Amino acid sequence: MSDTPPKPDSAAKAEARAAEAAAIRRRWITLGEVLAVIAVIISGLTLWNNWSQRSDSEAARHAETRQASARAATLVLTAATADQRELALRPAADGQSVQSQHIAFPTALGAAPAETTGEPRIEAAWFERALKKARNQAGLPDDSRGDERLPVVITTRFLVDSEAHEDVALYDIGYTISGRWLSGHSVTLRGLSLVARVKADEAQARLDARWKRLVPGP
């Protein structure tokens, strides 16, 4: 039999309440730690989300800038004619300033390349005689049956925001021809259309190949 005297009911109850209070405090401490961990996780996720959004926005801005720069450096020429003997050329996009051009003709024509500076254009006089001769040798009709096409390679040096660029492209000159061999023929220029961009070292070969498709030999 134990020698320890039994505790009074009030002491036992007090001890039980103290133990329960201690247990409650431990539970609150544990819950607080969990909430603190959750808060840290939420904070980390928020920071990561903010960083991710900024990173995505910056990447999108950089992509837009690169695309805008690429568009600005991509040249497409358009043509207008007043007297039907000359095409005035200009860039289709704003902000591009043509400095000079080199216009190459198919080898079969035997026409010398033309150079322009500050006034981009194509003149019928540059190739008219050679074109008439080539059409005659190919047995083509005296009069056009719709718009005819003469391929050329145009090398254009131009500026965008004071930065120099060069474009080498294969174009078709639209033209018509009318008249008779005895009375003379007249070449009328209609317009210009882009065929393809080409590498400088492949340009003449691509041009000659297109000429052979458009104007087959006898």
Can you give the helix content as a percent range?
A: 25-40%
Number of strands: 8
Strand and helix order: HEEEEEHEEEH
Radius of gyration: 41 Å
**How many distinct helices?**
3
State the end-to-end CA separation: 134 Å
Which secondary-structure class do the elements indicate? alpha+beta
Instruction: Count up the domains.
Output: 2
Uncertain runs are none
Shape field: rod-shaped
Major beta-sheet overview? 5 strands, antiparallel
**Which strand order do you get reading across the main beta sheet?**
4-3-6-7-8
Mean pLDDT: 83
Strand content: 25-35%
Describe this structure in words.
The chain is an alpha+beta fold. It folds into two domains: 1-72; 77-214, no CATH class. Helices cover 39% and strands 33% of the residues. The protein is built from three helices and eight strands; from the N terminus they run αβββββαβββα. It has helices at 9-72, 128-137, 203-214, and strands at 77-81, 86-91, 96-104, 114-117, 121-123, 148-160, 163-180, 184-197. A five-stranded antiparallel β-sheet has the order 4-3-6-7-8, covered by helices on one side. A three-stranded antiparallel β-sheet has the order 1-2-5, with no helix packed on it. It is rod-shaped, with a radius of gyration of 41 Å.
